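re: that chain from earlier
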Amino acid sequence: MNTQEILETLNKDGVGQGITLFEGPKDPALVIPADRLVGVCEHLKSAPSLQFDQCILVTGTHMTEIRDKKTKEVTRAEGIEVIYHVRSLRHRALVALKVHLSLEDPRVSSVASIWPAADWHERETYDMVGVVFEGHPNLKRILLPQDWEGFPLRKDYEFPKEYRGISLEVDPPWPQQ
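^ sequence. v structure.
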């Protein structure tokens, strides 16, 4: 089952509204409107013809990729994109899901209640990119201290020179005699 067939199944089942197929330079993906994510994911998991029972990755990027329908050229736009990789063990299928979010307020509903493995992945995406997963059972930093400021995987992130009085400079200057 490939990505196009999964989209056709979603359309046939009546849950494909607003979902588009992204055929990028690497892997194809389904682009899902943020407000429809949970409903689509619940269907991906529960529909007998799909049975996507395993979430293997949730990550975020500080850009979105858009394919021009006429020229087929892929361009990158300012924004946050959350990418989910989910697998159907029964059907031996893997699909990538993309959700485009605004840079100013990147929020999307959590899928941790659908796939418990998404819990830590969403926390890492929150920690590194700043995506707020609404309804997450324990959304707090997982890799960095709770009082860390900023999100290191954003392009506008400025790495601090120190944290709690400890120098974070990679090559600090040698002490002067």
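The longest helix spans residues 118-129.
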